Structures
1.
Amino acid sequence: AEKNREREKSRKEETRKKILIGAMVLDGMSKNQDYQSKMLKNLDKYLTAERDRKLFNLTPINKNNDEE
C-alpha cells in the first residue's frame, strides 16, 4: 500500500510539472513571436498523433509518404 501511495504521489507530481511547464511555454508563445515560431517548429517534429497536431494547427502527417 505504501508503494502504491508513493507511486501515485510521484505520478501526480509529474503531471503537475507538465502542466506548469506547458503554461510557461504557452505564455511565452503568446508574448514572443520568435519563441512561438521555434516552439511550433519543434512541435511539428515531435508530435505524431493527428489529434495533438490539430491542437496547434499543424499540417497532418501524410502516412503514405512512401507510396509517392
2.
Amino acid sequence: MTDFASRLIVWQKQYGRHNLPWQNTTDPYAIWVSEIMLQQTQVSAVIGYYSKFMVRFPTIAALASATQDDVLQHWSGLGYYSRARNLHNAAQTIMDEHSGQFPQDFDTIQTLSGIGRSTAAAIASFSFNQVQTILDGNVKRVLARHFFVEGWPGAPKIEKELWVLAEKLLPKQTTNKSIVAYTQGLMDLGATICTRSNPKCSKCPLNGTCEAYKQQRVHALPTPKPRKVVPEKNITMLIFLRGNQVMLEKRPPTGIWGGLWSFPEVETNHQVESIVLNQFGIIAKASITLPILSHTFTHFKLHIQPQTLEVLKLDTKVSEPGKMWIAVEDAIDAAIPAPIRKILNLLQNKNSI
C-alpha cells in the first residue's frame, strides 16, 4: 500500500463521514442512486432528495416500472435532469438485460446510461470491494494540490495526468475493505478538508507531503477553467390563468429541462397577443405582474419574463397531447424545473393577497 493511501485510510476511519444515508450498505442500487445524485451536487442538497427518492423507488424494479414523469417529479429541483432520465433508462436496461441484478463487472457497469468511469469505480468499490480508481471533482482538487499539477483539470491532457496519478496511489490490498475506506477518504478529504475555498490544511493527513502546501500556493490550485463570456438569453413565459388553473406544456425529451412540464415560451419583444391567438387559439388579457427571474445554466444565463394572461376564450388546441390545465397548488408539486416552481409560488402568493 502506498504511504498516501495508508495515511488517508487511517484518517478516514477516524475523521471521515460514516453516517450519510447511503453509507453502511453494499446495496449497489442505493449506492448507484447516491453517486448519480452527487454528480455536480453537494451532499447537503442531496440528502433530502435521496431519502424521498428511495422511499418512492426502493428497488431497481420499482424505478424501472415507474413513468418518466414520476421519476422527474421526484428529481424536480435537484437540477441536471438528464441524470434522472439516464437513471430511469439504466434501471430498465438492468431489468431487461441483467435479470434485474445490478452488474458486478466493471466494464459492464460503464455501459449503463449516465455512468462514467469514476462513477462506476465508486459503485464497484463500495458495493463489491473492487480496487478501482475514482476521479471526481473533489479528487482532482486533492491530487492537483498534493502533486502540484498545474493546468485546468478538465483539459484532456491534465485529466489524463491525474488519472495516471490516481491509479498509482491505489491501495493494492483489500483486507478489511481498505478500498472502501480509501475511496470514501478521497471523497471526504476533498469535501471537508481540501475544499475549494478556505481549506483546512492544518488538519489534513497529507499536509506533510503536499507540494502546494509546502509552496504556500494551495489557493492557486487547481487552475481555474479559462473564463469565457457567458451568453445570455431572454424569453417570455406565457402563464395562462383560468380560475385557479394554469396551462403547462411538456418539454421535448432532450435538451434543457427535457421531459419536464413548463410554461409555453416565446422570444421576448414578440407580440404576445398575436402569438397567443394564432399559436394557441386563446383570447386573453394581461393579468398579474410578476418580476423577471434569472437562472444560470452551465453554458448560459436565462432571463425569464413571466407574462400572466387571464383567459377569456379558448379552443380545442389547449387539449392537445403535451398540454394540461392544472391547479396552481398541484402544479407546484409536479415534475417542473426550479424556476417554474418559483414563478408558481409567486403567483400563489399574489393570488392570496
3.
Amino acid sequence: LQPKANIIRAVKGEVDSKVILNTGLFNFDEASGSAGWINELNEGHHQHTPETEEYGISSFVYEARRPFHTERFYNWIHSLPENVVRAKGIAWCATRNSLALLMSQAGPSVSLEPISYWVAALSKPEQEQILRQNPELLKEWNEEFGDRHTKLVFIGLDLSPSEITAEADRCLLTDSEMADDWSLLSDPFDWQIERAK
C-alpha cells in the first residue's frame, strides 16, 4: 500500500513512541502519489501478481482422528520451521483427553491452551442436549472417541504439506501407545483444569 513506508519490527506491540510520533516524516502529497494501490489501479488487475505467487505463500489443513502424544506434539510445535509463519486450530492430545486445545503459532510465538471440553467428555444428558441442538456434530461422530479430532491450518512460504503432515503424524500415538494408559504419558503442561463431569 505504501512502498516507501518505514517498517518497524515490534514484539507484542512494544514500540518506542519516539520512532512513530511527531517524526515529521509523513508527506501527504508524496504518499498519495506513491501509494502501491494507485500503481495497481494504473497498471490494471491483469498486471497484478498474486501474493501467493509473488511470495510463495500457501496454506493447507492437517486433520487427524487419533490423539497426539502430548509431549511429542508440544515439542514439535515449538520447533516448527521458519517458513511456517502461522498455524492455528484445534488439537486432541492424549493426556488431556477431555479437552479441545487451541493451538496458535505466529512466527516464534506458540501457545497451546484449553478452549472447551469435547462433547464426548461430557455427561450423557449434556451430550444428548448438545447433539439435539447441533445435529451436524453427528456427521463426524466416532463411535469410540466422539467428536475428538485435530484440525490445524498451516500458512507459510514454500510449504511442503507432505513433510509437515509426516512430521505431525510422527507426533500421533502409535498403535501400542493407543492401547496403553494415556494418563501415564508425559505431559508438559503446567495448567490444571477441572475434569468434565
4.
Amino acid sequence: MLSFNPDNVALPQGHYINGEHRTDGGSFFSVSRPSDGHTAGELAEANASLVDEAVEVADRAVKESGWASCPPRQRGAILRRWADLIEADTQLALLEALASTRPVYDVKHHEIPFTAEAIRFYAECADKYSGDLLPTRDASLGMLIPEPYGVIGAITPWNFPLSMASWKCGPALAAGNAVVLKPSELTPYSTVRFAELARQAGLPAGVLNIVQGSGAVTGSALVAHPLVRKVSFTGSTQTGARIMSDAAHHGMKPVTLELGGKSPQLVFDDAGDIAEVAGRILRGFTANGGQACVAGTRLIVQRGIADALIDKLIALCQGFKPGVTWDENSRYAPLIDRRQAAKVQQVTEAAVRQGGEILTGGKRFENTGEGYFWQPTLLSNVVANSPAIQEEIFGPVLSVQVFDSEEEGLVLASHPTYGLCAGVHTKNLDRALRAIRGIAAGTVWVNRYGRSGDFIIPTGGFHGSGIGKDLGRQAFEACQRYKSVLIDF
C-alpha cells in the first residue's frame, strides 16, 4: 500500500550541515503541495553567512576526513551502501511525492531505483577511470594525474529532485570531492533524507551538505563562494546564463550546465505502427506533466500520416485522469505551482490569438480544487514565432507542424535557441542517420523518446541548452582537474 496521508508525514526541517540539521538562516519561505495547493511547511533560507559556513565545513571535511585521499574502492563501497539504503528506505517516496509533482507510484517504482542505480554506477567509476602515461622523450616520464576539485557546488531543479541530486552527487563524491547541494526551494524535503542516508552509509560528516533557499539568495552565494571550485546546475537557460556569469566573476571556476529545451519529435511517414508511435510521443510530452527539460513538445509530422497520428493522440490525451501525488493510483502529475499554471495558460492563449487551434485540452482539469492539473493539450496551425514553438513551456502542451519533404522536416526540427535532445521516428536507417547528422542536439533518440537506465550514455545540450555533460564517464571526469607532470631521469 503506497497511498498515504500527507498531513501525517514528518518533514525534515531546515538544512543539513556537518551531519546535523539546522533551522537557522535568513528569512522564511513556504513550501506548497502542488496536488492541493496547501502549505506543507516553512523553512529558513540559507543566507550568505550560512552558505559560507556550509562551504567551509565541506572544505575542511574533505581534507580532514581523508575522503579525497582514501582508496577509490573504499569510496565506492560507501557509495554502494548508500545506494542500498536509498532503495530500502521507506521515507523517501513519501517526502518526494508530498511536495513535488511526482506521483508516489512513480517515485517508488522508477525514481528511487533510478537514483540508487545512478549512485552505484558512479561507485564503480571511482577506481575505473584514472590518469594517463604520456609518450615523451626517452629520458623522461610524462603523466596526467586527476585530482578532485575540493568542494563542488550543486544546484538541482524541482522537477526530479532525487534523480537530479544523484546526477550531481554521485560523480562528485566518487571522484573524491565534497558537495554543497542546494535543492529547489519548491521541493526541499527528499534531498535532506537523501543526505541523511549518505551519512548512515559511512560518508564522513560534512562531505555532503544541504542548504535550503532561493536561487537569488542561497544559489548566488554558493556560486560566488571562493572555496567552491566547480559548479553543476540543472535548470532554466536564463538562470544558467547568470550562473555562468557569476562563476566567471568569482574565481573563473568551471561549470556544468544542463539547461532548457524545446525538443522536436520528427515523425516520417515510414515510422511504422501509428498507435506505437503515438504512445511514444504522448509519453514524451506528458511525462511529469510535461515538466522536463527533455520534453518532446514539438511534433513535426510528415503529411501522409499526420491526420491518423493526430487523431490517435487526441484520443490518448482524453484518457488522462488527475489525482493527488500521494494516491498510489495516480499516474498524471500536477504542475508545480500557480505561477507555472499561469505560464502554461498564457502560452496556450497566445497561440490561439495568433491563429492556432486547440485540438484537445487547453485548460485545467475541473474539480481538482487548488491542485494545478493541466489537461494534455494539442495545438495546430501554430505560427513559427509563437511562444508555443519558441519557448520552453514546462507543461503538457504539444504543438503540431506538418511537412512534406525530408529537408523541410529537418528545417522545422531545428531551433534558434535550444539543442538539448530530439526524437526521430522512422524505419529507414539511411533517413535516421541523415536526421541524426542534421539535427543540432546533444541527444538524439531514434524510434524511442526518453532516457534509459544506461547510465554510461551522457546527457547535455548544445547552444542554449547547456555546457558539459551529466551522466556517463564524462560527468565523473568533469569532477576532476588534471595535472600534467614531466619527470626527467
